[in-house]
Amino acid sequence: MTMVPVLIDLAQKLSKDKKVLDGLSMDRTSASYKMTYGLKRTFHTQTLQSIREQPFSLNIDQATSNNKKVLSVLVGYFSKTEGWVVVEHLAALELENCKTNTIFEALCDLFELNQIPWTNLVSILMDSCAVMRGSKNGLERRIREEKAPNLLDIDGDVCQHIHNGTKKLCAPFDSWVEDLFSAICTDHKYCVDLCDSLAEVCNLLGIEITAPEHFLSHHWLSAYNLAVSTLRMWCAYQVFYYAFIDKAFKADYWPVVNGVFNLEIVSLFVIYIIKCKQNIFKMTI
User: Fold this and answer.
1) Residue 30: how many CA atoms within 13 Å on its side-chain side?
2) What gap in Å lies between CA 207 and CA 203, rounded to an integer?
3) Which residues does 81 contact at the CB level (< 8 Å), separation at least 6?
4) CB–CB of 77/51 below 8 Å?
5) Which parts of the chain span the membrane according to its record (predicted)?
6) Order of strands across the sheet with 84-95?
7) N or C: which end of the chain has fewer CB within 10 A?
8) Among 94, 128, 156, which residue terminates a domain?
9) One-character DSSP codes across 13-45
10) How does DSSP assign 40-91, residue by residue?
11) What is the pLDDT of residue 112?
12) Can you give the pTM of this predicted structure?
């Protein structure tokens, strides 16, 4: 990624040279060949040369791509050319499974194939799951015992710690807020009429509508992102769902809706239209 500004500058200069552009082939095969055996090979060679000569850190994480288990390996080191620490892509290793032994063997093969000395490895950033950081059979412990005894303990992924802390903090609330997000998403995901009706209310209230998103329980920022989006449309949701409240409870919630109607941006004409549409919503949906 550190070469992106240089490549952009090169592309801007080449765009002014018509002779160069006329002789430059960018069809799929040619472009792929140049990227794979040209730029990619050059960058990869430079990265390997750097980490063979000086200390470096790894950032690894497993993921699934096209039903295949892949281990992404990033490397961070101090670049003498740039004058600061750079993070570059080292490899994407396809795995049979995500067990400790499989990941350990894949990393050993990577180091051996590229002649990378384990003595230069300073630390590894990984998530806090048992496979990676288990006290008995974790990947970090095995690397420290068999390959890099001086490996620093930099703890696990900060984001995962925040996720675990957030989950613990919200546990006493019985997922009230998260369930609200999921319920709103389900309402509008499977019913086009509800989406259209909500869009009409948002339009009348001058609120930009965005489709309700699904809450991701494993993503600690998901609750925050959905809360921001939901609060922005909160007035529209209050007016919209008031139409579906049982008559016996409408009086209890009327002050809430009336508070929306008393906003300066809401005219009497808009209030009249919304009240008419509330009756239509309940009859047609």
Assistant:
1) 5
2) 6
3) none
4) yes
5) 256-274
6) 84-95, 68-79, 56-65, 121-125
7) N
8) 156
9) HHTT-HHHHHT---SHHHHHHHIIIIIHHHHHH
10) HHHHHHHHHHHHHHS-EEEEEEEEEETTEEEEEEEEEEEETTTTEEEEEEEE
11) 93
12) 0.53
Rounded distance, CA 177 to CA 159, Å? 21
pLDDT over 90, % of the chain: 14
Q: Tell me the average pLDDT across 44-63.
A: 88
pLDDT given at position 5: 73
DSSP bridge pairs for 58: 75, 124
The answer on 211 and 133 residing in a single domain is: no
Can you tell me whether residue 116 is helix, strand or coil? coil
Determine the Cα–Cα distance for residues 139 and 60; give it in Å rounded to an integer. Answer: 11
Q: Residue 190: which domain range?
A: 172-284
CA distances from 203 to 128, 196, 208, 232 (A): 46, 11, 7, 14
pLDDT for the residue numbered 225: 85
Whether residue 144 is found in the same domain as residue 230: no
Last residue of a domain, one of 127, 156, 185: 156
